Amino acid sequence: MKKILVVRNDKIGDFMLAWPSFAMLKASLPECRVAALVPSYTADLARLCPWIDDVIINPTKKGSNADRAKVVDEIKSHRFDASINLFSTTYNALLVRKAGIPYRLAPATKLAQIFYTRRVRQRRSQSAKPEYQYNLDLVRSFLADLGQPAVEVQPPYVALGDERVALQRQKLAGQLSIGRGIPWVFVHAGSGGSANNLSLGQYAELICGLPSHCEVVLTAGPGEEDNARRLLSMVEERGRHAVLYDKNEGLVDFTTSIACASLFFAGSTGPLHIAGALDVPTVGFFPRRRSSTPLRWMPLNSEGRHLAFCPPEGGGVEGETDMGRIDISEALLKINPWASDFVA
């Protein structure tokens, strides 16, 4: 097995949770060439990953038949020995089959499984373990088929280097007019539409309850700027200073900025998982619904560097996704003592 294609062509957070899989593959098979099939919006992150040798761009749902045929031809040209579909759909299954990849591994779920040559039963819908561990189980199964021991890789999975982060901190300090010598707490109130999140009122209460010596930086992705400005106004009305960071030079630049944070707060969304991969201490807010629990979508932080909150038990099916049931004042009683190690 000298050329391996790994398919994870969905959202940013899902892709970040695949980094341990790329790391394990490359550490276990250092001579192999690993390619990633990703959408265009995660391509720059894929190029940042030290365990990915080649990046293949997958057309989105809006892609034409010609675009889809082109990516099949591109995959064929690599002559892959194996594919590992961390994300399995009928489209993805047919893609690797049409490309003629002889060994095709994926979870044994959905009708799509009939198009693979090797399947692993996982029952991901039970959310019995973190998503990244389900991904790793597929890689372990692949390595076992080769008779190759799996080499475990530990956090952080994104390592940018002290000098690069220091330069980014200097740049941001000038851009946002904030001090470099105090802790920066990033708060990302957007969700990208991928998960339930706190209300702006809850985020405002949270921010105003954080240690006063910290500089609060409100981050926003495309389409989230207006809500971030509203949150900034709410925070300032309560007498707490904060700054808005809603302009960057792309996803890698934004990732480098996240590396400057002492703490990162967000719902279950892409930026939270970028922060976790950097091992920036994270606080995440999750629904209680089984497919979206804090366990299933745990970020990649090392032990002790992540706190998770979700609605309390009870309230029926609707209560599981009602983020308004999270008591912020109660959460702060846990957050502030824990955070003291990171924002001293």
TrEMBL record:
<keyword id="KW-0328">Glycosyltransferase</keyword>
<dbReference type="Pfam" id="PF01075">
    <property type="entry name" value="Glyco_transf_9"/>
</dbReference>
<protein>
    <submittedName>
        <fullName>Glycosyl transferase family 9</fullName>
    </submittedName>
</protein>
<keyword id="KW-0808">Transferase</keyword>
<dbReference type="GO" id="GO:0005829">
    <property type="term" value="C:cytosol"/>
</dbReference>
<dbReference type="GO" id="GO:0009244">
    <property type="term" value="P:lipopolysaccharide core region biosynthetic process"/>
</dbReference>
<dbReference type="InterPro" id="IPR051199">
    <property type="entry name" value="LPS_LOS_Heptosyltrfase"/>
</dbReference>
<dbReference type="GO" id="GO:0008713">
    <property type="term" value="F:ADP-heptose-lipopolysaccharide heptosyltransferase activity"/>
</dbReference>
<dbReference type="InterPro" id="IPR002201">
    <property type="entry name" value="Glyco_trans_9"/>
</dbReference>
